[in-house]
Write a structure and sequence with these properties.
Number of helices: 13
Shape: elongated
Helix content: 55-70%
Radius of gyration: 33 Å
Strand order of the largest sheet: 3-2-1-5-8
Structural class: alpha+beta
Number of strands: 10
Strand content: 5-15%
């Protein structure tokens, strides 16, 4: 059906274009200059302008009344969200007033001052009063909007006391959540110690730094041994590749020194009770400070129902705070939400899909790649008792257990096997060179 509608629209446009060509050709046959406009044509155009104005006002008013100022967002679920909604509504009021005022002037003047015989336009060069009027009034309005926005922005970005710290880590194309644990302090992190399977956030401990240095040193030794024993039998290009890798591993080892110096007993302890999960649980009425990092490109963490958004920038940490005030269960019980999701579920079921129910979501609001649309995780707002039950089950995700396994694995095997790694590396290089 949609395809047929598109075809019909395209055909109508083509037909209109052809009619315009026919009109142009007929004008030429009648020796009529297209720039010459008759009084009848002027009157017809003025009437059409008035009709278009009436249609525009009716349709615009219907859209505003039917969809409202915040379609799909519903009630704000954060403490500061009411202030955001107020600013949003004020902006809409200003825009609507300006829209109706300017469009009315535009169309009424176009109708009133249609071309008439003997009428001549007045040349109006300058008016200081008018210039001041349309400069000062917008400046005052915009200053009020900006001051109001900055006030709310400072409120959610200024660090507060007694907030629960949570890290939101962005990576194409997903989110990872790290709770700060009982000490409410996040352990240090750095991309140099990232391990895809065991340490995706690059959480740092002194033992892990030492283990990583040991693994890279073993790999350098194994590659150096390979060159010494089999270098004469290996093509120069392959030797150059191996030497480049040895130099690269040496640089990586040297870059571990600043990490080691930054580690203390306190930062090591802070890392051991962090909890890393793929779902965000929050307690109603509790203040949270969110810290954002990105591994690859700029992402934007959007909490639409909490009226909050922050860019996640590689190489730096950004932050904001908010307090959730409506649980997921309470939001699901709201009549408007029930109606909206009932209609959506009925359509999905009719198309053979599963029914859906309301959930808070964390979305990416920057186009970050091909799977940007799928970069989201669920947010569950619940009571303290419900949160405690869920959090207790996350003990297997505690960083100290993850790091303990990673450290022992690295120390035992060098992360990448020693002699075997050298041979595998050379084999891979040889294969790539042969291709």
């Amino acid at each position: 059906m949609k395809f047929i509608i598109i075809i019909v629209i395209v055909l109508v446009i083509i037909a209109a274009a052809q009619l315009m060509k026919v009109y142009e050709l007929s004008s030429r046959l009648r020796n009529k200059d297209e720039a010459d406009v008759t009084p009848a044509e002027t009157k017809f155009n003025a009437g059409m302008i008035l009709l278009f104005y009436i249609a525009l006002m009716i349709s615009s008013t219907w859209l505003f009344l039917h969809y409202g100022a915040r379609p799909g967002l519903g009630e704000s679920a954060s403490e500061h969200g009411g202030e955001i909604d107020f600013l949003y509504d004020v902006n809409w009021i200003i825009l609507i007033i300006a829209f109706y005022f300017t469009q009315t002037l535009l169309f009424v003047f176009a109708f009133k001052y249609q071309q008439k015989k003997g009428r001549k336009a007045v040349f109006f060069a300058h008016s200081t009063k008018l210039e001041l009027l349309w400069t000062i009034i917008p400046a005052i309005v915009l200053a009020g909007i900006i001051i109001g926005g900055l006030t709310v922005w400072n409120k959610i970005t200024t660090p507060k006391e007694d907030t629960t710290v949570i890290e939101i880590y962005a990576q194409q194309f997903g989110w990872t959540v790290r709770y700060a644990g009982e000490d409410n302090t996040l352990g240090n992190s750095d991309f140099k110690v990232i391990d895809e399977s065991k340490n995706p956030l690059g959480v740092v401990t002194t033992k892990l730094i030492n283990a990583r240095e040991k693994s890279w040193t073993k790999e350098i030794d194994s590659l150096t041994t390979y060159i010494a024993e089999k270098g004469d039998l290996t093509p120069d290009a392959i030797i150059d590749e191996i030497e480049d890798k040895i130099e690269r591993l040496g640089r990586q080892i040297r870059r571990l020194d600043p990490l080691r110096k930054a580690q203390t007993a306190e930062t090591n302890a802070a890392a051991t009770d962090d909890v890393i999960v793929k779902e965000l649980h929050l307690v109603k009425g509790k203040d949270y400070e969110f810290k954002f990092r990105s591994r690859d490109v700029i992402h934007s963490a959007l909490f639409p129902h909490f009226r909050a958004q922050m860019n996640c920038v590689p190489g730096m940490t950004t932050r904001f705070s908010f307090k959730p005030v409506i649980t997921t269960a309470e939001m699901r019980a709201m009549p408007d939400v029930q109606k909206q999701y009932k209609e959506a579920s009925e359509k999905r079921v009719a198309n053979g899909k599963e029914a859906v129910e309301f959930d808070y979501l964390l979305l990416c609001n920057k186009i970050c790649g091909s799977s940007h649309y799928n970069m989201q995780i669920k947010i569950i707002v619940e009571t303290q008792e419900e949160f405690d039950v869920w959090y207790a089950k996350q003990s297997e995700s505690k960083t100290f257990e993850m790091l303990a396994g990673l450290e022992s694995t690295v120390v035992a095997s060098g992360s990448i096997d020693t002699n075997v790694a050298a041979i595998d590396t050379v084999n891979l290089i040889t294969e790539s060179a042969s291709h």
